[in-house]
Amino acid sequence: MPLLSSFSLRPRLTGLLAVVSLWAGSPAQAQTGKQSVAPGASAVAAIKETDIKRDLFALAGDHFRGREAGSLDELKASVWIADQLRAMGLQPAGDDGTFFQFFHIQRTRITETSRLNIGSHQLTHGQDAFLLAPAIASVDAPLVFVGTGTPDELAKVDIKGKAVAIQFSGTGPADISYRRFLFGTMSRRAAELVKAGAVAVVWVSDKEAQSYFERWTTGLERGRYDLPGGPNTRVFSQAPTVWLPASAIDWIKQPGQQFTNVVNVESFSYPSVNIVAKVPGTDPKLKNEYVLFSTHQDHDGVRRAVAGDSIWNGADDNASGCVATMAIGRAFAQKPGKRSALIVFHGAEERGLLGSRYYVEHPTVPKGSIVAVLNAEMIGRNAPDSACILGQQPPHRNSTDLVNAALAVNKADAHFKLDTLWDKPEHPEGWYFRSDHLPYARANIPAIAYTSLLHPDYHTPKDEPERIDTDKVTRIAKWIYLTGWDVANRPTRVGLDPGFKLER
């Protein structure tokens, strides 16, 4: 995928927008016609499944190539979203009178010239071997195989000054997801072996780990991302940890092999963008406060082909949240609340919540004026009548007022069966910590997220618009909107629970 290399962002903003606008070539034109508003206090009738389905197939179709953060595809999709918001009648609320707030993301990866050899096998990072961290390393040492690395097996081998090959095994405790167990174990045990004298660690997948090797290693191939100066931008010289497929187990056992590794890293700076729009409130005083509707527009882009499909479209993650948020903006544009509605599409969420982290540190409205955050994250899959609120229960709940508002709307209107397990601190996926409401909650702004949770197509090319339940997206969009409408029109803002503190 063509990515933009490092450049000074502000001086070239005008030119960049012009280029991206030419590339945007919208597959679905913005709708400018006014819709009728149903009787009653709100404009919930303006949220229509026909609009949501049209926008979903436009945004999550192959035209935008998976909207990878830091690429022209993310910028093209962002321009398209801004065009839709403008046509709906929303006002720009980004930087310099635009809908955009640009920021840098920094990528650190292993260079293509890095070399890895084990015996007669010449391995390429990103294809048949993966290094778990972009760290500088130069190793030339004998390789020893220690089985699954039990204490008895390690006691038989002198590992000092050696590269240690070990086969992964185990499934981990019930309260930790296998993915977290896999990466956590490889990292922890590698550190223990290096402390004991190993100069490199080579993991070989077992049957269970192999499925994750095939599915999750595209992220390792790309390297690490962060905001400039963040912890993932730091590069160290350290013993390398290599991950091999299960097919390597036969030849990795052969004695007398040499491990030779020369690894260098390189860093790039790319632009990403938040899209920010508003609908001013009607109350002379309360319009200076904002109900923030949050989502993210990026996904994984073009990656390794699976069953012939190399575009990881991200229809549920998170085009579903985007089209719901667009529909919410359309409803507020038709009938504003007393408080202002602030709509934020965050860039680079998949790279570590980078857009929301940046916006919390550089808000385009006074941070203290943000009354609440209602985040939409993956709302189009699983059972039609099921959903989840993240931030519903302690220690994740930071506003009982906001949670009760959402629960009241669900009881009166949405009627979803609410999953409460995924919001618990002991849930193995740690789902609360993986979406854009989190930086706002850490900043002590009342925040919840609406989600329909994980499914087998998560972060695969099978996350296609045809698989989305657009009726469910529409009903969750109305649920979010009606909660926000309540918060926007209350005489006093929702409160922050005293003593709020996350478990990590």
TrEMBL record:
It comes from the Bacteria. One of its GO terms (molecular function) is metalloexopeptidase activity. Keywords: Signal. Residues 1-30 form the signal peptide. Gene3D superfamilies: 3.50.30.30, Zn peptidases (3.40.630.10). InterPro entries: M28_fam, PA_dom_sf, Peptidase_M28. One of its GO terms (biological process) is proteolysis. Residues 274-480 form the Peptidase M28 domain. The keyword Phosphoprotein does not apply. Pfam families: Peptidase_M28. This is M28 family peptidase.
